[in-house]
Amino acid sequence: MVLIARLHKFLTATVDEKSRSRTIFWLMLSLTFAAVYGVLGIAQAFSAEYMVQDDARQHVFWMMRFVDRQLFPNDFIANYFQSVAPAGYSALYKLAATIGIHPLLFHKILPLFLGLISTYYCFGLCLEMLPVPLTGFIASLLLNQHMWMTDDLASTTPRAFIYPIFLGFLYYLSRSSLLPCLGAIALIGLFYPPYALVAAGVLVLRLVSWKNGRLRLSGDRTNYLFCSTGLGIIFLVMLPYALDKSEFGPTYTAAEAKQMGVFAADGRNAFFRPNPVDYWLTGRGSGMFPKSLFTPVTHCVGLFLPLLLWRRSAFPLASRINSKIWLLLQLFLASLAMFFAAHATIFKLYQPGRYTAYSLRFIVVFISAIALTLIIDGVGNWASTTETKFKLKNLVALITMVIIAIAVVLYPCLVEKFPTVGYVEGKMPALYKFFQQQPQDIVIASIAPEADNLPTFSQRSVLVGKEYAVPYQKGYYSGFQQRASDLIRAQYTADKPVLLSFINKYGIDFWMLDRNALTLKYVEDYGWIEDFDSTPEAILSLKQGKVPILAQTMTSCAVFENQLLVVLQTSCIAKLTS
Question: Is pTM, for the whole model, over 0.85?
């Protein structure tokens, strides 16, 4: 009984009951786990010579221009991704490159530091809601397990910065620290602009309070100060985006998008799903709830918090929950408002699901941590304040605490692949080195999957690539579609002028083909090209037994080949077909 009582007191001691040393202990333990997870992620990043995070192939490759300005000259794809990169995100990578850290190296080590910053703010914010250091530790542990079981953090794309920056905003807002809060708001707009609108919603909702069964305006002048200054900062950082007249805009309207196969239920960027449940609740991009919401599954404990609060007499720590927990409700309502606003303005505010995905993850992390703390407090209090002949209750309490500890701390050991970082390994080093040896202004035509890796690993331009088929902005995707359609038509044409016209139009220097690329089966089975206008034409031509002109050059014009690929030089193709 004495053991349980001491353990219960140690675990559930509040911040004001002990010196700062206990809080520091739990914080350092939280940061230790964050560092361990980060190192495990970095280990995967450096496990092979050619390794890159999947989404970084879109968002990081063009930043090699910071190292060498001559790279990707007049590159349509690189120009697009540079244009849509948030200002703060680009500036950070440019700063790193200026001090000698290569973008591909920076994107591999950055998640460790983002994870540590996120952990600090998560721990601190949790203590604002329930001043028990154990709760902060549990929350930060659940957050880190989530971040390393999804690829958001490892991607080091703009969405990776939501975790440290938005948690920082919530932390400083809960502590009424004006200047740091305004700084966090500015960073949100500079790194992940959509969530600046969520921050605006939170600030506005804090002007309203529920009192005596009615909604009333807040009587706290601090809320008005934070709201007015915060909205001013948001206006300033969002103004450049509102005034931007990019050559790649505008976004597709809802009517236009519904006619596009890429947004259909079976499309590559599926959005419009016939099932209302899928469309509004669970569908990626369109749905309110991300499929990874309860990843890890220990997050499910948060669903029991209302029940624990209803029986608060059995859980003494429930009385220590601070009113600041209402910040989570304000966050949910603000995110929900933006979710419906994004649906009403399809793609102008980007994907609706992005507005609730991260907010709900934060909310679930905090309520799960609080629920687990209340359970530990409840069983500890139950065992230490009652006696049984065989001290059975003490044993039950101890077993319960051990099970919770194992489930929370050792959960990653039960996951087949932890951390899950989504790294892609380039397995054709000879190919990458071959293209690296070519002039920097070459253009490579290919619909082969390996084309996705060439800008990153070879630093050379590709005409199109599956990874770069982003269909939201009309100016970009219509041009991408035209290039892809022209490429498919030329690759399978039996008409020499069509082939030569394509090469001259786009300045193609090399043509990279899968060895079976000129067969009917390849075209019919290769899913991502089915949405382009010239694909049916190519299939019909092959069915009619027409032999593509390129087939005649596979041997004589090959300048590189391996078991899977053949690279043809277009100057040779032009000579043979002229």
Answer: yes
